[in-house]
Design goal:
By secondary structure, the protein is of the alpha/beta class. Helices cover 41% and strands 25% of the residues. The protein has helices at residues 38-90, 96-100, 110-127, 143-146, 160-173, 210-223, 239-242, 270-279; strands at residues 4-6, 19-21, 130-135, 150-157, 179-183, 196-202, 224-235, 248-254, 260-266, 282-289, 293-300. The longest helix has 53 residues, at 38-90. Bound molecules: S-adenosylmethionine.
Length: 301
Amino acid sequence: MLPVCTPLSPQVYPGGFRRCKPTGGSVYPKDRRWISNPSLKRKFVTVQGEFYKIIDVVWRKTCFLPCLWQMLDTVNSDIKASMFEYYNERAKEYEELYTLGKGPASIPDPEAYKREVNILAGIAGEFCYGSVIDIACGTGFWLPYYVRQCSQVTLIDQSAKMLSVCKEKVSSLEVQDKCNLVCDDFLAHQFNVANFDCALMGFFISHLSQKEEQEFFEKLKSILKPSGKFLIFDSTWNEERARTREKQGKHQRKLNNGRAFDIYKRYFEKDDIIRMGKQYRLTLSLGHVGRIFIAATGKLK
Ligand SMILES: C[S@@+](CC[C@H](N)C(=O)[O-])C[C@H]1O[C@@H](n2cnc3c(N)ncnc32)[C@H](O)[C@@H]1O
């Protein structure tokens, strides 16, 4: 809840300090008749003024800045809507990034994309097992590489068009009996079954703000078995990338037809993965740090 700020009467509160408190109801003594001595009263008012000054500073540091941060963070919801639409509209051309190094590729070397896609495909094939959830699965690009050794696969994405491409892939692989496609925002979705052996997050965390990242890892912990494992694929941050991109923030992306969208994107380097491990108490290991992609495997501590 946003703190309530009310102007103070200058007679009672010298300097006209503002009283800021997180909820309604006064925290100040209402009955001051016990101060009959004028000099004592002056001292009391001065000390009281200093006290409110301190409260004001503490409030600014503890409430104001986090509130401001949260307000800035909600700006993301506009970008989020645009990003959701972008991925929906990009569904048909999405895999060109992997197969042709085309689209929003910021490193102009298609062969490098293809090489690293092979590396990630190998990691997905070795890592995913049992009951898997592919979070923000998109077109299910990694599915053919891991589905054979899995007993069940839940593929969740907010985009209906991405899921429709994914459904075609499920059919062509003839794995409909073990795949369950869910169209929803992962962060908002209520899971009936929450005991996955393994989770794959391909290029998803990079689209979350820091606040959402925290929500995400809390949710991940709640849907994985205690022995559960997870695999993160994402985009590497390096000097080459820095020539055309900001490390994090609002980015513009264009479809093949030139239509532009704002999206939120972060790029990760080794230290970011280490930070996530510490912050969310996870055991994380780097599997691949390439020119284009980064892969990390993890388990709950
Ligand atoms: C960069 S694509 C990655 C697709 C796939 N995981 C891959 O590795 O190719 C990002 C995907 O995340 C989906 N997405 C973004 N935010 C989401 C959310 N909160 N819940 C579900 N899906 C989301 C988008 O619709 C898009 O399909």
